[in-house]
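== Folding task for one protein ==

=== Format: two labelled lines per protein ===

==== Paired sequence and structure tokens ====
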Amino acid sequence: MAYLPGLGRELLKAAANAPFLEREEEKALALAWRDQGDRHALHKLTSAHMRLVIAIAAKFRHYGLPLADLVQEGHIGLLEASARFTPERDVRFSTYATWWIRASIQDYVLRNWSIVRGGTSSSQKALFFNLRRLRARLARDPQVLGSHEAFEAISKAMGVSRSDVEAMDARLSGSDVSLNAQLVDDDSSGSSQRMDFLVDTQPLPDEVVETNVDADRRAQWLRDALAVLSDRELRIVQERRLAEESVTLETLGDRLGISKERVRQIENRALNKLRKELSRRQGDDDGAEQIASAE
């Protein structure tokens, strides 16, 4: 077996020296493990198929994950296959175990390739592991002129939407980048990070608290000042200035049985009383000015 960077020589040597199993011997070992729990039989069965695990794991090296970790995950799939294998079906263990080994490695890749989990559905998982191969094959097709045609062809071949193909292609085109990564690759402590250039348009926490406190204070001032108004003045101010939808002078005059000019006079008198009351209570007529300026 050829040397693979990232794997220990002892593991490679043990896998290469493990004897191949004949069909009957393989079946006997599987039965001994299933029926008798013979761990020696399990060890001999799995050791003989470590070459298969390493060969499958090597196909996933281009995802940037340690080959040793891929082999370990493949071995987990191999053990799972050993627990589920049915010798009576007359199927070679390597044929059955291949699916479990590949599935275990693929799940590991999906969980660790990016901090954002992908491939949550079967179609997305198939797209993740086949997109690069399909794009490389389509790149050699003279009828495919650009990305648009390639995305359409892959969409039809995989049975997924074109937007899913584009989104997966964007994810595969670049790896995760930490916001704490320095923009300049040096050891200077003053080097800027990507996070330094993120702009937050929301107000600062102290500004939010200050605004809420001021709003509560002004609301209390207004409630206290409204107490000096008569019932008719209070109704006019509420319906003309404090309601979400202000009523017209004419409509309010019809309700009160007075002219719209009289409503205007009462409204102006009430607003003047509010200004004086607010000024007397707090020495600040901001609240009254806001009421007077609202239409």
